[in-house]
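Budget justification note: compute hours in this period were largely spent on complex prediction jobs such as the one shown. Inputs:
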Amino acid sequence: MKRPAAPFLLVAAALWALAGCGIDVEGKGEVRASASPPAYGDTFVEASIGDIQGLIPNITSDGASHAVGNLIYDGLVKRDKDLTLVPSLAQSWDVSKDCLTLTFRLRKDAKWHDGWLFTADDVRFTYETMIHPKTPTAYKEDFLQVKDVEVLDPFTVRITYPKPFAQALETWGIWMLPRHQLAGYVEGGVLREAPQNRHPVGNGAYRFVEWKSGEKVVVVANPDYFEGRPYLSRIVYRIIPSQSTIFLELKAKGVDYVGSLTAIQFVRQTNYPAFRKAFHKYEYPANVYTYFGFNLKDPRFADRRVRQAFAHAINKQELIDGVILGKGREATGPYKPGTWAYNPNVARYPYNAARAKQLLAEAGWRDTDGDGIVDKAGQPFAFTILTNQGNEERKKIAEIIQQRLREIGVAAEIRTLEWASFIKEFIRKRRYEAIILGWGIGLDPDQFDVWHSSKTGPDELNHISYANPEADQMLESGRASCKREERKKYYERFQEILAEDQPIIFLYFRDALPVVASRVHGIEPSPNGIIYNFNKWYVPKERQRYTSG
Amino acid sequence: MLLYALRRLALALPLLIGITFISFFVIQLAPGGPFDFLINPDLGKIDPKIIQALQAEFGLDQPLHIQYWNWLKRIAVLDFGRSFAPDGKPVLQKIGERLPITLFLNIIEMLIILALAVPIGVLSATRQYSVFDKVTTVFVFVGFATPDFWLAVLLQILFGIQLGWLPISGLRDFNWEYLSFWKQQRDFGAHLILPITVATFGGLAGFSRYMRQSMLEVVRQEYIQTARAKGLSEQAVIGKHALRNALLPVVTILGLSLPGLIGGSVIVEWIFAIPGMGQLMVQAVFSRDYPVIMGNLVIVSTLTLVANLLADISYGLVDPRIRVGRRVRR
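Corresponding output:
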C-alpha cells in the first residue's frame, strides 16, 4: 500500500536510509502492544473533504481520488515504512550499470478484479496511456522520459531510457491500468468516459463497490489479493465538504480517521478524556514546507544582502510556536530534515534584528528622514506580502513577519487573494513583491523544475526567477545520476548555495497530525507516516463495531 | 388569459438567451481555467503544452464569441455536453443525480414554512400588539439575524455530540443498505431533521412577516368592515374574506422562491454534507467546469422565468380583477 501517496511527488519525503539519521517520529501512539490477535472484519469510515474526481487515479489530481485509487490499484513498486522502494506488482528488478535500462519481473499470481491475469502487457499499456497526447494526466512528463517499454515475456518487461533518469524506478509506482478494459478508450482519446472511471476493475487490496456522487465511496476487501486479504473488510469514504463538520463527526465518532487535524484541533480541541479514549493521535513531518518568497526581479530583492537581512529579522521558532503550536520543524532548505538528501550544515540566520539592520545598511537602506522606515534614494522600503485566502496559517505568518520587519524599519502590507486569481493573475504573471506559500516536496530530491534558471518561463514553476549557474549545474548533475552517494554530494552543495543566496526564506516543515479510532490496531508510525501498512490494520473481534460487510 | 400567457412565454426566450449570454462571458472573466488543477504546485511539474493541448481539445482556445455560438447551437438541441471534471460525466446526468434530493428537501421546507407562517402571520395580525404578536416579532428578528451556518453548528454540537440524538451530517447512515426497511426510513428521517430545521428557520421569519403585513393591510379595507357589518362571524371574516386577499403578495414571493427550490441552499448543503444542487454548482464554479455551470444556469433561469409566469397567472386565479383588468387594457 502506498496510500495516500501518489507514486512520486505527492508523496512522502526522500529515503531515510543512512543509519541513525532517521526522522524522529513522535508516535504519541507508538506501536501499541496489543494482546488481541489480528482479525478480519469491521467497517472503517474515513471523511473526505471533496468528492472524488474519478476512479482512474492516473488522470485525477486530488487527494481523495488518489486515496481511493491506492486501495483499488497497485503499481509495480511501492514505498515501505522507511521509504525504500519495495516490490509490489513487480517481484524484483534490475537496473543496468549505466542506469539506462530497468528490467521488472512481475508476480505471476496478481489478478485483476474481474479474474484476468495481470501481465507485462498491462505495464506496456499503462505506459501507452500515460504518453497518449489526449490523456489528461499530471504525470506525463515522467513517462515521456522513457525511450521504450518492451514486453520480453508475459511476466518480464524492460524499460529503456535515452539518458539516466534518477526517478525512473519511483515513477513505476504509478497505478497500473487494465488493457482489456480500456484499450479503445485510450486510443479514442476519451479515457474519462470509460466505464472504468466509474466502476473500476483494479488489481489492489480492495474492490470497488459503489460511488454515490457527493455522498460516499465504498470498497471491500479483495479476498484474492496477492499479499493476502486485508483485515479491514469494508472502507467507506464519506464526502463531507465542510472542515468543521468533519471535525464534529470525528468527535461524535461518525468517522474513524482524519488524515490531518489543524494544530489547534490537535493540541487543544481534542484534549479531553473521552476523545483520548476513542482515538489515538499521531504526528510525523509532512512533505510540505512553508516559505516567504521574494520576486527576484524586484531590484530591492535582487540584492542578496536584503534577503539575508530579512532572514535575520524573521524568527522561525516564533512562527512554529505561535502559528502551528510547535507542531513543525525549522526548514533550512527545500529538503526535509532526516531525509537522505538533507544537509544540516548550511548557513543559518538566527533571529538578530541588529545584524539585519546592519545588512540593510550595507545594501544602502538607511533611515535618513527619521520616520522609522529605512529608505534609499528618497524611496522608503515598503512592499506588499501576498498570500491566499482561506489559509489562516499563512495569514498569521504574514502578520508576525510584518511586525518583525517593522522592527528593522521595513513597512509591509498584507493582502490575501482568492486562490485561482492569486495563481493566475499574480504568481504566473509575476505581479508580486513578496509571497507566503508552501511547496510540496516529492520523495526524490530532484527539484529541477522549481529552481533551474531555464524554468522561469510563464506557467513554469520557478516563478521567483531564481538563477544561479552553480545551482543549475548541481541540479543538472543530480538528476543525471542514479547513484545515491553521487547525487547526495550534488544536493548537499545545492542546499549550501540556497542557504547562502536565500532566494526564498524557508520557514518550516509542518507536521501531519492524523487521528485514528482507538479500536484499530496494527498502526506503526514511521518516516512514511502511518498509512503505508493500511492492509495490516485490524480491529480485534471483540471491538468490531459493524458486523455488515 | 391564454394569449397573455403565450405572449409572456414568447418574451421569455430572448430573455433566456440574454441571461446565458451574459453569464457565459462573466464566467470567463474569472481567472483560471478548467485544466488549471493540473498545475497544482503540490503535484509538481506539468508541461504547459499539455494544458494547451487539452484546451484545444475542448475548444477553449477559440475566441469567446465562437465558443458561445457553439455552445448555443448545442443547447438548442438540448445537448448540455459533458463535464470538464476528470469524471467526464454528461452534465444532465450530474444534475439528475443531485436534483431529486434538493427538490425533496426544499419542497418539504417550503410546506413547513407555509404551514407555520400563514397561521403565525394571521394570528399576529389579528391580535396586533398582543403578547403573541410581540413574541413572534422578537422571534422573527432573531430568525432574520441568525446566520444559517452558526445555527447549524450549534444544533450539530447540541443534538449530534452533547445529546447524541441525531446524526450530524449526510443523508443516510453509511450502513444504510444493511438496515431493515423501517430502520432505513427512520434513519433517513433523522438525518433530515437538522438541515430542515435550519433551512426553515430563516424562511419562516420572512414569510410570517409578509403574511402579517399583508393581513394588516387587508383587515383595514372597507369590504372587511362590510363583512363584519353583515354580521359574519370573525372566523368567516378572517378565514374567507381577508385571508384570500392577504395571500396575494405571498403568492408572488412563493413564485419567486421556486427557482430556489432547484438551486438549493449552498450553506445548508455544505454544512450538512448533502449532495445537492447547491454543492454541485459551487464545486463547478471553483473548478471552472463551464458546461456544468452553464447547464445549471440554463435550468435555473428557465425555472425562474416559468415561476414568474406562474406567479402572474396565479394572480389572475386568486384575483379576478387582474385577469379582467389586463383584458380590458388590451
